[in-house]
Design a protein that fits this description.
Strand content: under 5%
Structural class: mainly alpha
Largest sheet: none
Radius of gyration: 19 Å
Number of domains: 2
Helix content: 55-70%
Length: 117
């Protein structure tokens, strides 16, 4: 749902920049290819989120964040559907299933940069 909202927001920005009214009834893919544009907002967000994870995991001053991300905080789970976690999004984007493998990979800056690219 959030991905769809981000893509809709990006298309709204493109339409505003090109001054295309909503009454023009033009398809999004037509606008993109006619003006040789591409959707870049979501890829930029993904790249920055994964980059920030590497920054946090290499830093020694982020001990509390390490504990939280490892899921070692005890307590009761709230009622209702769980929201998609920040870490599960990154695991889906990178293709790494286990969080421990992701954290271990983040310690090596060069290998982690290959995953981001």
């Amino acid at each position: 749902a959030d991905v769809n909202r981000l893509e809709a927001f990006e298309m709204w920005l493109f339409r505003r920049m090109l001054r295309i009214p909503w009454t023009a009834r033009m398809r999004n893919d037509y606008i993109l290819e006619h003006n040789s544009m591409s959707r870049e907002l979501l890829t930029a967000i993904k790249r920055r989120k994964v980059g920030y994870l590497g920054h946090v995991m290499r830093g020694t001053k982020y001990g509390l964040l390490h504990t939280i991300m490892m899921g070692k905080i005890s307590g009761k789970r709230g009622v209702g559907r769980r929201r998609a976690s920040w870490l599960s999004n990154i695991r889906n984007w990178t293709g790494i299933d286990r969080a421990a493998d992701l954290f271990h990979l983040a310690q090596d800056r060069e290998k982690f940069a290959e995953v981001i690219a």
